[in-house]
Amino acid sequence: MRYFIRDTTLFLRGRFRAASTGINGGIADVTTVLNHTVPRDFDDDPPRYLDLLTARHGLSREYFGLLTAVRMRHLCVLQYDFVTVFITAGVTNPTRHDPDSPHTINIIVYSREGMSDAALLETIITTTGAKAQALHDLGYDFPGTTTDAVAVACDRDTASAHTYAGTLTEVGRRVHAAVLYGVPEALARQQGKVRRSEPSFFIYSRYGGDHWVEWQKEGCPYYPCHFPGQRCDYCYCPYYPCVDEELGEWVESSSGGRVWGCAGCTLLHVPEVADYLKRNPEATLAELKRLRDKR
After folding, report:
1. pLDDT of residue 100 exceeding 50
2. Which of 111, 115, 227, 284 has its CA 20 to 30 A from that of 236?
3. Which residue ranges form the domains of the chain, and what is each CATH number?
């Protein structure tokens, strides 16, 4: 999976098996899942609007799409092992009222590990439950807004490792934790309580005890961790795990099993490579390595 923001749209690109409660939702094989910001006075036909949007970006109609009035700079991305969750949130359109402002809570869940169709659907339940709990914990007396949507995707070329996705399962507990933590963070940014100029990225860390950490390239205490002048836009690599033995290796995990270790990889820290990837977010590793080698 590769994700990037272009203009006012979050794109997830890959070969997915996915389920969505959004526009033209259902369960299907898709190559794109997106969340797009519309004006507050949006009054277009949503399916037609999304078809035109994807066509402008040269994408096929194999997609699931969500719409929101929340700006993409308020997006929160949360990574918990093999699960990544994307949240935009606004609550000026709660289910118990009918105000004019059309905000919504959109959540996209991606699993790097395979999931059965039943698990994809159960993830929607797990996500919705965590969202409702987060709103309750914040003191709201409603479980969501009138236009909330959830999309769940996994790599369809990966064997189905997860049959269920309730909160006691490996995938479900990660999704629940990410949504429970992420909804308040996303709301804080949309409401101006936390100010960021670009989307926020959180990683579930086990160093010094299990906890969420917001990674920010500005003021990183480890800079420069590789070489002076390095770029840090992709500190958490979008290719992970690339399984390219020139760039990393399999290492034994302290909890058992093997994990892909790439602490010594500097490819995406090379300024020319980072700039190229920003302009071409679907570039292959081979492209980036050729660019590095030409320096």
Report:
1. no
2. 115
3. 2-205 (3.60.70), 222-293 (no CATH)
Give the helix ranges, DSSP H, for the chain.
46-56, 117-137, 170-190, 271-279, 285-293
DSSP string, 15-61: EEEEEESSBT-EEEEEEEEEEEE--TT--S-HHHHHHHHHHHTT--S
Length of the chain measured in residues: 295
Residue 235 pLDDT:
82
* Residue 95 confidence (pLDDT): 54
Burial of 204 (C-beta count, 10 Å sphere; 0-12/13-18/19+): middle
Predicted confidence (pLDDT) at residue 193 exceeds the cutoff of 80: yes
Q: Please count the CA atoms within 13 angstroms of the CA of 250 that sit on its side-chain side.
A: 4
End-to-end CA distance of the chain: 28
pTM: 0.92
| Buried b / exposed e along 263-274 (16+ C-beta atoms within 10 A) | eebebbbbeebb
How far is it, in rounded angstroms, from Cα 42 to Cα 68? 10
- Which helix (H) or strand (E) is 219 found in, with range? none
Across the range 167-192, mean pLDDT stands at: 97
Give the C-alpha distances (Å, rounded to integers) separating 111 from 61, 117, 160, 256: 22, 13, 11, 21
Q: What is the pLDDT of residues 123-179, one digit of tens each?
A: 999 999 999 999 999 999 889 988 999 999 999 998 878 999 999 999 999 999 999
